[in-house]
Amino acid sequence: MKWLRRIATVLVALIVVVVAIVYGGSEYILRRGHDVPKVDIAAATGAAAIAEGGRIARVTGCRACHGANGQGTILVDSPVFGRAAPPALARVAARSSDAELARAIRHGVAQNGSALYIMPTDALAHLADEDVARIIAWIRTLKPGASDTIATTSFGPLGRALVLTGALPSSVHTLPFAGKSRPADIGRYMVSISCAGCHDLHKERPSDDGKQIVPALATVGASYDPAAFRRLLRTGIGMTPRDLGMMREAAVGGLRVLTDSEIVAIQAYLRAEAEKAPSQ
Q: Is the same domain home to 90 and 144?
């Protein structure tokens, strides 16, 4: 019986060591500051800018994660993984400067310098200064309300293990990709600030939740006729009755507000990229 007790003692000690390493290591990563300068962008002014900011917040998925009216949501709540709770935007704005909001949007860095998680900065980093200013202007119109989510993001044991191993990377982007204003190629721009959050341009990849394979974007764009492509972006309905899952959610939640000219420009850009693909 003594050897059983010794084995049990050793196992418990190993578990304690592993837990300490996972918790301590992940806590260091979660609390670590990131030396990303605040972005010198001020909220835009005027009703048109505010309205456009609200529209772009839909296109980029801000209002899919943070709620249609910025009230915050809980995307995941698991004792094993943790809680993913995009906060109520009005409450974040109340304690943040415009420059801090701009840094969070584009670079995935919180007010205290720590990393944000599950922010689609692969796409948001491409937002032009003028669109960041418009989004901030829209956020500034929001008011805290009784329906606001007050839950905060936290990490369970599996979530912490994923953070520690790098399997769950932070959203920190240190290099700016964007310019002052929208580029002339509006199709490429719209793809970069929205579709790039889920799709690669020339290769398929697993979705962030691992539940489906996300197709290469250029291939998809080239395979649809204009009317079917417009329906895809507005409704999430493809060329077959199959439920497209995340694509349907993205279309209904945000891409539906794309203008006809933006959709035409997006498809033209994707078709041009598809033609270049074989030579790459």
A: yes
Q: pLDDT for 189-229, tens place per residue?
A: 999 999 887 888 888 877 766 667 878 888 888 899 999 99
* Cα 176 to chain centroid, rounded: 16
Residue 176 in this model has a pLDDT that exceeds 90? no
Strand order from edge to edge, sheet including 82-84: 76-78, 82-84, 154-155
- DSSP-derived 3-state class of residue 104: helix
Residues 6+ apart with CB under 8 A from 165: none
Q: Tell whether 130 and 90 lie within a shared domain.
A: yes
Is residue 238 included in any domain, yes or no?
Answer: yes
| Domain-located, residue 124 | yes
Which structural domain range is residue 260 located in?
A: 186-279
Inside any domain, residue 13: no
What is the pLDDT confidence band of residue 278, given thresholds at 50, 70 and 90? low
Residues 193 and 266 both lie in one domain: yes
pLDDT for residue 37 is more than 90: no
Q: Which CATH number covers residue 194?
A: 1.10.760
pTM of the model: 0.90
Number of structural domains, the chain?
Answer: 2
CA distances from 26 to 18, 20, 76, 176 (A): 12, 10, 19, 27
Residues 193, 196, 198, 201, Cα dihedral to 10°: 160
Half-sphere exposure of 59 (CA within 13 A, CB side): 25
Q: What angle do CA 152, 155, 156 make, to 5 degrees?
A: 130
pLDDT tier, 177 (very low <50, low <70, confident <90, very high otherwise):
confident
> What is the mean pLDDT of the segment spanning 16-37?
85
